[in-house]
Amino acid sequence: MKFKDFLKDQLGLLVFDLTFLFVTISIIVLSPINEPLFDIIFYITLLNLTLLLIYIFISYFRKLKFFNLLDNGLISSNLNNLSLLKNTNEENLYLSIIKNYQNQYETMANENFNKFEENTEIMSMWVHDIKMPISIIKLIIEQNQSSYCEKVLDEVDNEVMRIENAVERVLYLSRLEDFHKDFLVQEVNLEKTVREVIRKYSKYFIAKKIKLELSNLNYIVLSDKKWLLFIFDQLINNSLKYLNTQGNISIIGENSKGYISIKIKDTGCGIKTEDLNRIFNKGFTGNNGRNNSKSTGLGLYLVKELCNKLDHRISVNSIYNEFTEFTINLKQNI
């Protein structure tokens, strides 16, 4: 609290004191005593102003100390120490109101946290429950491959994979807040990780006749394999989603100053300049998403959040109707 602001709050007291001093001096001056009383007026004025200044400064520093303790108590969520001070009735009233609001806030926060934990647990159970029928459907498709219904089965398989990817995004989104509970830094082979994702989408590459280029990926980096696999999965899936038939996808690694840069580039529809700064925002689909009902705006948001938590850096470069290139920088050592 600034001294100037404190004086504004004490304006009523100052006006009353100076008015009372003026009235006292006026009475002395207008009294019928013939002798001059300038010495008395001077001493009265000096005494009054001295006592006023002492009161103002003591009040200011006392209130300043109270507000500092109050501020520290709010930050540390502990207002009990303030109760030990010799507070004025006004300060005790403020303290009582603040404690009441703090208790209400803590109760609401705990209730919301418990609801969040409960919803997260329900979400995880639902994801695991729905994974079972997905696996069964995929198994049925594999066991009933035949030439006369091959096209139908491929379409069903594509839709099942879309469901599986959506379920995975929901699962990873629910785990994002508890990332530290499911996190293991280890040496990860980038080439094996990328090829694992490529195998998952091999049917898409073949069906769309997409040319794939893999180059210089045989590096070992420090990361969490499961989360890194999900990051590559989302980026490659994103490229396939917006890539036309006979397009190109290149995944190239570069070694630079203790970092391994992985560039994932596709010759798809690209991203408009005005959308580039927002593609990692939660729920943002942009121009491409509005033209493609398959977009949810969660994939790239999760990629960005996971990269931040894994201490990886991700950036994007794109020219609309030409290409899109994502670059991930990963550390080789701690």
From TrEMBL:
The chain crosses the membrane at residues 12-34, 40-61. It catalyses: ATP + protein L-histidine = ADP + protein N-phospho-L-histidine. Its main location: membrane. GO terms for biological process: cellular response to phosphate starvation. GO terms for molecular function: phosphoprotein phosphatase activity; phosphorelay sensor kinase activity. Gene3D superfamilies: 1.10.287.130, Histidine kinase-like ATPase, C-terminal domain. It is a multi-pass membrane protein. The keyword Transmembrane helix applies. It is an enzyme of class 2 (transferase). It comes from the Bacteria. One of its GO terms (cellular component) is plasma membrane. Its EC number is 2.7.13.3. It is found in: Cell membrane. Residues 125-334 form the Histidine kinase domain. Keywords: Cell membrane, Kinase, Membrane, Phosphoprotein, Transferase, Transmembrane, Transmembrane helix, Two-component regulatory system. PANTHER family: HISTIDINE KINASE, PHOSPHATE REGULON SENSOR PROTEIN PHOR. This is histidine kinase. It comes from Romboutsia maritimum.
